[in-house]
Amino acid sequence: MNADNIIIFTDLDGSLLNHDDFQFKKIRNFIIDCLNSGIKIIPNSSKTKREIEIFSNQLGKQLPFIVENGAAVHNLDLLNINFKSNTNSIIFSRTIDEIIEIFKKKVPTIFKDKCLFVKDMKKQKQKEILGLNDDYLPFALNRGYSTPFIFNGSSKLFNEFKLILESLGMKLHEGGRVLNISDNCSKGSALNTLVNKLQNDLFLSPYVIAVGDSPNDISMLKEANQPCVVPLPNKNNLNDLKMNNILRAKQCAPDGWEEVIRLSLKKINVNLIG
User: Where in the sequence is the domain holding 179, given as residue range(s)?
Assistant: First the structure.
């Protein structure tokens, strides 16, 4: 298999970026080697557009990327030049204002009262929950399609809440730190749209590797030829996920990301330049 036929869709926090300090310097050269070999890397994250742009700047490479749990994809031309359009993006979601309006009007009070939205918390609490400093906090809070929150209720109530949201055309995403309410989109549906677009418009059939660490990554992992899971510190994450060909890293991010990508490439006999 040629390296330029491979696409890596990857979660960031806890999968590629260290869960605690969001660093990836240890594997930066490996990521660059992947890109220089022709492999496409597409961050597929709950992060905002600005947050992923900052990651790309730190990497020193501009990438196509998917934001806010599948709400939109940006930099389409970097995936394939023939995808370039006026906006260079595809939006899959209603705006956060529309979503919040539905939430306020349609969600029963018993569930609304259990939701503590990060945007309504004091700044210090926001920093603690999201693990961010003063410089990066505003970028995480400036969301276009989703809103992070904490649910203070029983498991039974939580499961009922998820069903209520689904009945209203919304989705609840469980990340490594917080929950998110969004439109009816997901990391997996965004991945699937891009792959179908490559197949239908350009007659390309990419080999897809997906890397994740949390429940909101499951839809993405299920769409991949090679799903990979990176462990979170002191947490048995996604242990119940049953997939025959899943690869599980022994190390946490960022080292675990390099570990599973090397294993994935070895399985299909792909060597990197560099």
Answer: 96-183
Distance CA 270, CA 262 (A): 9
What is the tally of structural domains in the chain?
2
Same domain (yes/no): 162, 119 = yes
- Residue 135 sits in a domain of what CATH number? 3.30.980.20
pTM of the complete model beyond 0.85 = yes
Residue range 171-186, pLDDT digits in tens? 999 998 999 999 999 9
Segment 42-96, tens digit of pLDDT:
999 999 999 999 999 999 999 999 999 999 999 999 998 787 667 899 999 999 9
How sure is the predictor about 131, in pLDDT bands with cuts at 50, 70 and 90? very high
Measuring CA to CA, which residue among 83, 88, 40, 89 is closest to residue 202? 83
Instruction: Please check whether residue 273 lies inside any domain of the structure.
Output: no
Tell me which of 183, 214, 246 is where a domain ends. 183
Is 169 found in the same domain as 106?
A: yes
- Looking at residue 48, its pLDDT comes to 98
Residues 39, 112: contact at Cβ < 8 Å? no
Q: Are residues 81 and 137 in the same domain?
A: no
Between 203 and 181, where is the model more confident?
181
